Amino acid sequence: MYLFKRFFIFLSILQTFSCCAATIKGNISDKQNGGPIAGAVVMLNNTVYGTVTGLDGSYALHNIPAGTYQFQISYPSFKTYLQYIGISDTETIIINYSIAPASTSLAEVKINGTLKNGSDAEAGNIEKSSNNLLNIISARTIELLPDITVANVLQRASGVTVQRDNTGEARFAIIRGVDKRYNYTSVNGIIIPSPDDKMRYVPMDIFPAEIVDRVEVIKTLTPDMEDDAIGGVVNLVMKNAPDQLVIYASAATGYNQTLFDRSYQSFPQTAVNLQDPLELHGAAYMASVNDFQRRTGDIRNTNAPANGLFSFTIGNRFLNNKKLGAIFSGSYQNTFKGSNSIFFLPSIQPGENNAPVITDLQLRKYSTQQVRTGLHTKVDYEFNKNNSLSLYALYLQLNELQTRTIIDTSVQIDRTGAGTGQVDYSSRATFSKEVIKNLTLQGKHLITDNFKIDYSFVYSAAEKDVPDMTDLQTTANAYLDASGHSVTSPQRFISFDNSWERTKDEDRSAYLDFAYTPFLFGKDIECMAGTMYRNKQRNNYYNDYTLLPATINQPFDNIYNAAMSVEQPAGDVNNDLNYVVTENIAAAYGQFKVSFNKLQVLAGLRIENTHQDYSMNVNPALVYGQSAEYRYTDVLRGLHFKYVLSPEENIRLSYFESIARPGFFELVPYHFNGEYYTETGNDSLNHTVARNFDLRYEWFPKGIDEVFVGAFYKNITNPIEYLLSTEPGKVSMGELTPTNVTGKPAVNYGAEIVITKYFHYFGISANYTYTNSSITATKLSRLRDSSGNLYNYTVSDTRPLQGQSAHVANLSLIYKNPSLGFDAHLTWVYTGRRIAFLSAFEGLDYWQKATSFFDFSCEKSIRKHLSVYTKLNNIFNTPVIIELLQSKTQFTGGSYQLPYQTLPNNTLIEKDYFGANYLIGVRYKFD
Amino acid sequence: MKRDSLMIASFLVAMACFMSCAKKNDLVYASVPLVQVAQSISDSAPLCGSYKGYMVSGKTYTVAAGCNITVNAGDTLIMDENVHLYMSPASSIIVKGIFISLGNRDNPNWITVNGLVKTDNPQTPADADSAFISTRIWCGINCDTSCALLVLKWTHVEYTGGNFLGTPPLPSLSGKSHSILFQNINGSFIMEDSWLYGSTDELRVTCGKICLMRNTLEKIGITGGEGLDVKHGTTGDMAYNLIIGSATDGTKASDVGTYAGPQTNITMYNNTYVNCGYRRTAAGHGGSLDYEEGAKGLAYNNLIVNCKYGFRVLNNVIADTTHLRYGNTYNYGDSISIVNQFYPQSYITIPQLTDIPQPSSYLPSSYTLGQVYDAPSIVGSNDPQFVNFPLPATEGIVNIAYAAGFNFRLKAASPAIGKGYTGFSPLSLVPIDPVYGATEISPPGKDIGCYQLDGTGNQH
User: Fold this and answer.
1) Do B317 and A347 touch (CB under 8 A)?
2) Over the range A487-516, which residues count as b (16 or more CB within 10 Å of their CB) and which as e?
3) Residue A671 phi, psi dihedral angles, 5° rounding
């Protein structure tokens, strides 16, 4: 904090330094909302003196000789201001002025129309006036950020960390340290389904950043919101039709550093068989080797083409009085990435005294092409000032073509030292297509001055298709030749796996909300009530075939020459991954909001009824829980206080109850039989319930500056963790099962601070969140008993929630010089250490070390409406490092000596390098 | 102001009155598997469903294609002597209660596939072997966690390891079967004087008390899999078995399994391993006997002939070497690559003074455990002198994975005679009973290998 203050002072000095002659300075703001106007032209007509206001609306004209001048402020769509002033050499004149829009006709109708859509000022205003505690990232900020997907944008929000996929792309959001399973994602407030084959959470990288008007991270839920969130809600607000013609377009290209350094490993998408033999030929079909293509087993080294990213938005209002509004946004991103990973495969079961064991060293290379398409359109018609209807459509598609090659050196088999041992090769080729669709019809009707009805009818669907994923496995062994050089024997063929998986989730929902604001007891009491119903149909298809060598010990040179036979010619669709889920959720709520002088109280109740069932494609006569049904009702209370300390300051205090439903597949009593334990589902899982307390102080000192200081506390009952069930006699192996942790409820608390401050051309935006969570569950401890036998004791283990970092910080340095038409953004994201994977054994959890990612972006306008920009991601190629908190000394000597153990003390488990990403583009803006 | 305070107070009271209510359990219904009441078993029609009772001596029973015959929990199904049970493709035996097969020397029982002819000749490669034809083989004997007892006496179990059609009948099974699966930590599995011939996968004991004694195992595992493979929570004896041509190890003990059960403890003694370990595609995975991942036990008097690897004690994850004793291992190898793996490189098997040949006669004086060594001097030496099995092998080692036409008894002049160690006892953890247990737990023998000159040991 001390450093921070010093920095402020330093900047202030800079700002006031240049004062040696006559000066005119001041701030320009928007008359309607008081927000600063950045980029307004301030000039003395017919002179050389002129400037443009900074981010905070400030300006200064220096060294002005004595005289009389015509002082002018102009800004597009606003009324131009003119004033005559006379000055002498020594004075400093301060002119603060609020300018008014040229036309205000529509602003009166539209609730959010007073501020420019997607502006920071609008975002701040929503944060200030909202019923919820939320953090907003506006479209304008997103444009300036170095991020191309919403997932990457999310990491800039206070208290949010992201989980990355194997390409380094941020994928899932963890809000305030609670796992992604405890959050939901909505678009314009409508919850959307997930294309995931097992869970409810939505991959956030499917959303291209450009089509979003703002990203809201909502941390307290009011009764009018769906209650399936404990960490928070990510709400994406899509662009609305603007008041006048708006055209945005951008085109960019770029490259990933990894792919400068090594080749891109690829296979042709046309090789993929979209349907499996069983789908093509019917249920009784016996597949032969000729039913399978081999080209995905032939991964080739190529050069990746350059990335191409395009976006386009057009919007306007038409007809008389501009009753009809329409907007269309499209985005297409075709990107290529490479990532390299060093991975030490640990034995799940440790040695005596829980000594860690590493069995393999894997060098993994990923090459990934992602083609991300986002389209959305909204048409709204305002019949009159009281009635409007809108139709919204969203289509998102993410096609991913990925190869993963692994060279696995066993340090368990045939290892006599460096350069020796069994070497296994795996080449996996995956094509996947994820789609999210949403169609919403929404009506808003003001029946009387104090009675309003809103309704929405929604169809949403999420799909994921992973056809013909193949994995080619071969083996060889490495040994030392007479001169001591490591030699690898010719490869032998192990297997060629082919699988097909498809998930479809469809929601049909209706929402109805009433708002009535009677004047009672001398007050306006805003009463809201509403109901919603959602029917979900979800199904998952999975089939696989393994092709095995037709002759034993078969040498392998390439996949085309391999002699193969089909292990299970009938395929395998009678398994638990073929399952169907229906879910009906009905909810009703009532809430009221009333202000007592400076205190605003919002209180209410929400009742949610869940009725879910599943069935899987197995013989019900043979298997327990082939189908099951669930019913539960939650009554959830919410009480939210907002105390207005001053026009610039609020204090909020909230209490709300919320739930998290188990993942769809977690309830299915599936069995994946492994070497160490069996992974199973748990049909008796109960949903998680949380009681959440939030306290926040908000200060909006001026312009878009803001300071938030807050604290939160969550008490989570029935959290779901993956635990080993170890009842001997009931199971023949350990069973890893999603389990409600009972006994002590999990506790999660923390504090956060957000500061945004602008000094003319400079801005600084910082946030920091401290989170502490604690959960107590069982683990195993492998010790000797009194008679010297090895025994897996059950012990109690208290730890933070998986994925939760104690310290999360973001810092953005912003430079924005409207007179040069130049913006720059340097961002730093710090994510403290956290548990990456849980071990079944005591002391063997894998921790991800703290990471610092640096990104930079800048934009320069080159002429009217046109600018060029660049985005540099992961500038320092920050590795993601996962470690075991155990001394590495046992792995630094002898025949089990491991390379790459570069950490000072602990054992390295995984180190991923994603490479920097470079992007350069042009943007056209007409508004 | 007063009225405001009153209002706020009444909100709070109202809020508190609504108790957040949640039922105890979300689950209101889950389907349960169908338990078919067992019928008395009969040979009048092809079998399909749940059975109990006696299978009558001299009769032949047939299981319909793709069908399971199930012994329900609480029920017992007994095969009297001289019974043929013909299995059809993809059929299996599911044991949730007790299953007993009471063959004897003169009248063994057969659980096999009718009409399949053994292709026991060295010219037939494994991929053309009738033992592994996926369209003919069946899915083995699969015991549930509730199976208290599985007894196989003088029983031929042949052509297992098939793929299940449709839903695997037990949750612990995936699409492909083992030859025999046993998984009750409190149950007993006795297999004595029996034959296991041809299986694409191994005999697997996930947990339980075992006595696997005096059996002959041929052609177990096609491109992987051990003869007898046991995991965490398995205790008992493996002795006097003749194991020929298993894909990987002949016998393996591991304490892998992440739950609180007893430590795996297996005595392996007087077994004979011939030509094992050659069908495992990946190198280095064992070819005779093996202790790993915290398993303990005793291993004496084992005869290892032309196996790809000798006795393996693993270091990573380490066997329970403080509670593992072994010795009197007899190794024979036709080629340099075999003899150089008597003490397999990279592992930690300690050469014992009682081993044959004398480790000091061919290991370097500076030998450290797992070290690569070269011992051309002992190639082909110390022929164990089987009654009828020419050494050095005249046919391909890889393809002789069967016993027919050979005799692995020892000649009186065999250097393995009288070299056994008898100063220990079997664990003897299973009941002794003519029907509901082991007939005899043979004590350690004084001759190395599964056949004793005095006629005891393996009776085949």
Assistant:
1) yes
2) eeeebbbbbbbbbbbbbbbbbebebbbbbb
3) -135, 115
Whether B188 is covered by a domain: the verdict is yes
CA proximity to A735, closest of A683, A682, A687:
A682
pTM as predicted: 0.89
Query: Are B176 and A620 in contact (CB < 8 Å)?
Result: no
CB pair distance less than 8 Å for B258 and A676: yes
Fold adopted by A2-99: Immunoglobulin-like (2.60.40)
CA distance B174 to chain A (A): 7
Task: Write the CATH number of the domain with boundaries A252-263+303-480+502-542+577-926.
Answer: 2.40.170.20
Q: Tally Cβ neighbours within 10 Å of residue A111.
A: 7
With H, G, I as helix, E, B as strand and everything else as coil, classify residue A414.
coil
Backbone angles phi, psi at A181, to 5 degrees: -65, -20
Q: CB burial class (10 A; 0-12, 13-18, 19+) of residue A315? A: buried
What tokens does A827 get? 């961002």
Identify the sign of the CA torsion B274, B279, B280, B283.
positive
CB A523 within 8 A of CB A474: no
Whether the CB-CB separation of A891 and A897 falls below 8 Å is answered with yes
Chain A contact set for B294 (CB, 8 A): 349, 351-352, 782, 790
Q: What is the DSSP string of B332-394?
A: E-SSHHHHTTSS-TTS-PPP-TTSBS-GGGTS-TT--TT-----GGGTT-S---EEE--SS-S
- The residue ranges of every structural domain in chain A are 2-99, 252-263+303-480+502-542+577-926
* pLDDT tens per residue across span A436-464: 999 999 999 999 988 999 999 999 999 99
CB-based contact A540:A579 (threshold 8 Å):
yes
| A288-292, A347-351, A641-645, A842-846, range with the lowest pLDDT | A347-351
**pLDDT value for A105:** 32
What share of chain B has pLDDT > 90, as a percent?
80
More confident residue, A112 or A95: A95
Distance (Å) from the C-alpha of residue A617 to the closest C-alpha of chain B? 8
Reduce the DSSP state of residue A921 to 3 states and report it. strand
| pLDDT attached to residue B72 | 96
For tokens 């669907």, what's the residue?
Answer: A461
Asked if residue B116 has pLDDT above 50, the reply is: yes
Range of the structural domain that residue B396 is part of: 46-410
pLDDT at B142 over 50: yes
Please report which confidence band the pLDDT of residue B351 belongs to, taking 50, 70 and 90 as the band edges: very high
| B157 inside domain | yes
Measured CA to CA, the distance from residue A243 to residue A796 in angstroms comes to: 61
Residue B37 falls inside a structural domain: no
pLDDT at residue A134 greater than cutoff 50: yes
Interface contact A731, partner B, CB < 8 A = yes
- The SS3 of residue A199 is coil
pLDDT digits (tens, 9 = 90+) for A22-59: 888 888 887 766 677 777 888 888 887 888 787 778 88
